[in-house]
Specification:
The complex is a heterodimer of chains A (about 100) and B (about 220). Chain A has a domain of about 70 residues: Orthogonal Bundle (Helix Hairpins). Chain A is about 75% helix and about 0% strand. Chain A is an all-alpha fold and about 100 residues long. Chain B has a domain of about 80 residues: NADH-ubiquinone/plastoquinone oxidoreductase chain 6, subunit NuoJ (Four Helix Bundle (Hemerythrin (Met), subunit A), Up-down Bundle). Chain B has about 220 residues and is mainly α. In chain B, helix 1 packs antiparallel against helix 2 and helix 2 packs antiparallel against helix 3. The chains are: A mainly alpha (about 100), B mainly alpha (about 220). At the A-B interface, helix 1, helix 2 and helix 3 of A face helix 1, helix 2, helix 3, helix 4 and helix 5 of B.
Chain lengths: ~100, ~220
């Protein structure tokens, strides 16, 4: 009987739930700030996976990669929010549907 | 049912509920605050899995830095003046369907896997390996060099730090370069255009202004 309750499986299920919720948020929301928040949610779900497997295999690689993912999330948030501000200046709206000039 | 499982159950439930509220809330400020709650719950889950340093980074960077950035932008863009006739995209049914399909896919993959959960050797999560070359004198008098690996039990932060600066030094430097590029990109994208209107930079306009200035100076000196 494994003593390591909560199990890796439970962590993976939680991470999958958070990832699915984030994906739904990315697709259905029209407010661009909320879309960016949902992307952060998805990255966090991936971090849970990495930490759970790092614990399972007793290896530090998962935690190191989690730190890299957090770095990428920080950079992505900065650039994404700059884009949102510029879009708001251009269109007075942060609606995702308004930004469709690159539509082919 | 032990304490760790209880913590996982309670905190995991709060995390999932608040993540659903992030997506469901109409006001972005409320979304941001529920996102903060989700991040803190995930940090607690990291502590349960013996990743204290990552939990601290999660609180500092996510809950401290990124959330403040989000709240700044939410308050910079006055949300009350935005027309919020519809919050959801027009294909929201399809979006929910895709999300549920992905969840079912992930759940199927997770449920069918075997994990062989055992008590992991937690010491490996908090130990650093230091390599050292030791000179060994053989019985016949010759000296050979021997590489010795010593495992030292330290805290989780020191272990992660040693892994980061020894085994993952190049990715670490690449990450710092990435942050520099992201910073420059954010400044270039976000800066307001300070240049003058186009007519004021045209040569005719400048010449005319110089002549008027000359006229004014002559009138003053006269």
């Amino acid at each position: 009987m494994p003593e390591a309750i909560p199990s890796t499986e439970a962590y993976l299920m939680l991470s999958g739930t958070l990832f699915a919720v984030g994906l739904i948020g990315v697709i259905i929301r029209r407010n661009m700030i909320t879309v960016l928040m949902a992307i952060e949610l998805m990255m966090n779900a991936v971090n849970i996976n990495l930490v759970a497997f790092s614990h399972r295999f007793a290896s530090l690689e998962g935690q190191v990669f989690t730190i890299f993912v957090i770095t990428v999330a920080a950079g992505e948030a900065a650039v994404g929010l700059a884009i949102i501000i510029q879009l708001y200046r251009l269109k007075s709206s942060i609606n995702v549907d308004e930004a469709s000039e690159l539509n082919g | 049912m032990n304490a760790a499982f209880l913590v996982f159950f309670v905190v995991g439930t709060i995390a999932v509920a608040s993540s659903i509220l992030v997506v469901a809330m109409r006001n972005p400020v409320h979304s941001a605050l529920f996102l903060l709650l989700t991040f803190l719950c995930v940090a607690i889950l990291f502590v349960v899995k013996d990743a204290e340093f990552v939990a601290a980074v999660q609180v500092l960077v996510y809950a401290g830095g990124i959330m403040v950035l989000f709240l700044f932008v939410v308050m910079l863009i006055n949300v009350r003046h935005l027309p919020d006739d519809r919050t959801l995209s027009r294909f929201w049914k399809g979006g929910v369907g895709v999300g549920l399909a992905i969840f079912l896919l992930l759940a199927t993959v997770v449920r069918t896997g075997t994990y062989h959960d055992q008590n992991p050797n937690k010491k490996l999560l908090r130990s650093t390996a230091s390599h050292r070359v030791r000179k060994v004198t053989n019985p016949d008098g010759s000296v050979t060099r021997k590489r010795v690996v010593r495992h030292r039990t330290v805290g989780n932060s020191e272990a992660v730090g040693m892994a980061l600066y020894q085994d993952y030094l190049v990715p670490f430097e690449v990450a710092s370069l990435f942050l520099l590029v992201a910073m420059i990109g954010a400044i270039v994208i976000g800066k307001r255009e300070l240049s003058a209107p186009e007519e004021e930079t045209s040569p005719d306009f400048i010449l005319k202004r110089m002549e008027t200035e000359k006229d004014v100076k002559e009138a003053m000196s006269a």
